[in-house]
Amino acid sequence: PKTWAHNCGGSIVSSSYVITAAHCLDGIEASRLSIVSGTNDLRNDGAKGSRRLVASYKIHPEYKELDKCDIGIMRTQEPFVFDASTQPIRYSDTQVGGGESCTLTGWGYTMPIRIGRTPQDLQQAELKTITNEECRSKGFPVNPTEICTFTRVGQGACGGDSGGPLVWNGELIGVVSYGTRFCGIGSPDVFTRVSEFKAWLDENQV
């Protein structure tokens, strides 16, 4: 029987569409992708949730790895059924600045280096945004289509969190894009700034 492996996170934004990072999709056939929703537990192939196969996806046409436009959108073969455990999130059109509290969730590695397996239970971290100027001063050449967070050592994104949501005031503001080779060492994490791509996302949900 076919089994699935965790690759990336994503955010359900409507009954048939999920936002993720372009680098999570690049070069992968849609038939090899599926989405689990409605559970925080990935044990037994996420059996406690429901799985949707991916019919197709689009990557932003200006995507360049580790540089810009790291965003994509997937369309599911069957629509999600919204209930107490599965709901869409609104993607923000607000240009969020520095010093804002936000939440990152994902099934990424919990160790500084990517050893062992990713966790079976969904992880959550409370982070703060920093300005792009501050992010650049810490060695990350970010552009206006990106947003950074920087929090204490031991917190932040890691491998397996890619594509997942950065949430502010209940809205999706960021998609996990990249960070340093080692996780949680006190360096910024870089996210695709969703508000910069609202028009493209709107156009590609038809």
UniProtKB/TrEMBL annotation:
Question: What keywords were assigned to this record?
Answer: Digestion, Disulfide bond, Hydrolase, Protease, Serine protease
Q: Where in the cell is it found?
A: Secreted, Extracellular space
Is Hydrolase among the key words of this record?
A: yes
Domain named Peptidase S1 is located at 1-206
One biological process term in Gene Ontology: proteolysis
Taxonomically, which superkingdom? Eukaryota
- SUPFAM superfamilies per record: Trypsin-like serine proteases (SSF50494)
A GO molecular function annotation here is: serine-type endopeptidase activity
Q: Which GO terms describe its cellular component?
A: extracellular region
Which InterPro entries did the record assign? Answer: Peptidase_S1, Peptidase_S1_PA, Peptidase_S1_PA_chymotrypsin, Peptidase_S1A, Trypsin_dom, TRYPSIN_HIS, TRYPSIN_SER
Query: Pfam families this protein is in?
Result: Trypsin
The UniProt entry, under PROSITE patterns, shows: TRYPSIN_DOM, TRYPSIN_HIS, TRYPSIN_SER
The protein's name in its UniProt record = Chymotrypsin-2
Q: Which organism is it from?
A: Culex pipiens
